[in-house]
Design a protein that fits this description.
The structure holds 2 protein chains of 2 kinds. Chain A is mainly α. In chain A, 69% of the residues lie in helices and 2% in strands. By secondary structure, chain B is α+β, with helices and mostly antiparallel strands. The N terminus of chain B is likely disordered. The chains are: A mainly alpha, B alpha+beta.
Chain lengths: 322, 113
């Protein structure tokens, strides 16, 4: 058993390592809280990628052209890939894939609440790529240099692939905005519905965010939620202008003094409602996910049975040969 | 009542079975990004056997032509050094400066050495 002093010195060495920008690898000593926080954040991130496939998957069969369909398919496949990179990174911290899935399916683990909103029209696919992936990129880029090695490496891969997602979304919006009045209205309606939830995606305000200080120290966060949100707004509003769409915020105004956009009050009550499970699609998402997992069980079992049988055959063959 | 109990029993046996069930093992994936370069560790994944691991690795790690060759190794077959032993493992190299060319003193006007 380690005494308190020993523990303290291990922790000091650990913190100093992170301060020097050295990476922490899975077998290195780490404080229990570091391990737990990382399991929570990485798994939440993985779950978000996996559940994130559902609202978009909804439109694959109804994409308006083959070009759009292959792009959307590739994007959804990327989300699956990102989920898998992240689950693997998370497992290096000593939790199994089964436990992670259980936490998602039982509702114990959270995922990004943005995916509890419905995708009503094709324009939503454009808005998601443009806004939701845009906000995700802002969140994710700083994570490429986070302190936990496997997470940072997964994020480098994710970020490399993510920019196509945002561009394909913006192109969809662009096409709609250059189309008929009806198509333009559809794009405006999608922006109206996805704007505020996208701002919420960057997390509660700094004074409400409980983990920020610790996360900054561990480089799990490099900028605060409010800084990230401001960055998102500043870069997205001009993109909306180019589309000729109106951001649904009457208080939105460029502030020449600060060089940033001032914006209106976010409805945090809505955010917490969705986080707590009362969003429009919370139940639908989890049940679709559980369904997919349960109905795939026989496939997983069959693959395993086949693998066992092949192995046995191989053993017999080797025994005969010798 | 009786029915209810059997039902309960069945449910608990099922979940116990599920717990004991073997899950797909973990594999480490190494990818050679082009000929002339070494295989590099890319990440890991779960698969029932080596063939499926290879196919899954193709889909998960090389969707954008990242590789020309893939190795998969079941993770349990990798023996890794323990960072706690890094002292005895790697420090012996630290005081052997004579293994480096800069250890040797040469006159300044010597060239190409």
């Amino acid at each position: 058993m380690m005494d308190k002093e020993q523990m303290k010195s291990l922790e000091d060495i650990f913190e100093a390592k992170i301060a020097r920008d050295e990476k922490i690898e899975p077998k290195d000593w780490m404080p229990e809280k570091y391990r737990k926080t990382h399991i929570r954040q990485i798994s939440q991130h993985a779950h978000s990628e996996i559940v994130g496939m559902l609202p978009e998957g909804n439109w694959i069969s109804r994409a308006p052209s083959l070009r759009r369909k292959v792009a959307l398919l590739a994007k959804v496949q990327d989300e699956a890939g990102h989920g898998l990179y992240l689950y693997s990174a998370c497992e290096t911290l000593g939790i199994s894939r089964e436990e992670l899935y259980d936490q998602l399916h039982s509702g114990k683990a959270k995922y990004s609440s943005i995916f509890n909103y419905p995708t009503l029209t094709w324009a939503d696919i454009g808005a998601i790529g443009w806004l939701v992936d845009g906000a995700a990129i802002i969140n994710q880029v700083p994570l490429c240099s986070t302190s936990f090695g496997p997470y940072a490496r997964a994020m480098v891969r994710v970020c490399k692939e993510e920019s196509f997602h945002q561009r394909q979304g913006y192109e969809i919006m662009m096409t709609l905005c250059n189309g008929t009045q009806e198509q333009k209205d559809m794009a405006q309606d999608a922006l109206n519905r996805w704007w505020w939830p996208s701002l919420m995606m960057l997390g509660p305000t700094d004074d409400e965010s409980t983990h920020t200080e610790q996360s900054m120290k561990w480089k799990l966060k490099r900028k605060t939620n409010d800084e990230l949100r401001q960055q998102f707004i500043d870069q997205t509003v001009p993109q909306a202008d180019i589309l000729g769409l109106k951001v649904p915020d009457d208080d939105l105004k460029y502030n020449t003094e600060t060089g940033h956009y001032d914006f209106g009050e976010i409805d945090w009550e809505e955010f917490w409602q969705v986080v707590k499970g009362h969003g429009m699609c919370n139940k639908e998402r989890i049940s679709a996910r559980k369904n997919a997992w349960d109905e795939g069980e026989w496939v997983r079992d069959a693959a395993l049975a086949y693998a066992d049988k092949q192995e046995e055959k191989q053993d017999v063959k080797e025994a005969v040969c010798y | 009542m009786e029915d209810n109990q059997t039902d309960k029993k069945n449910k608990s046996t099922i979940s116990a079975e599920r717990k004991n069930k073997k899950s797909w093992p973990l594999w480490e994936v190494f990818v050679r990004s082009k000929n002339g370069l070494e295989h590099r560790h890319f990440g890991s994944l779960h698969a029932p056997d080596a063939d499926m691991a290879l196919k899954n690795a193709r889909d998960v790690y090389t969707r954008r032509s990242e590789g020309v060759s893939i190795w998969v190794v079941e993770s349990k077959n990798i023996k890794a050094s323990n960072p706690d032993d890094n002292g005895e493992m790697f420090e012996p190299a630290a005081d052997k400066a004579y293994r480096h060319p800069t250890f040797y003193e040469l006159p300044d006007d010597i060239e190409h050495m």
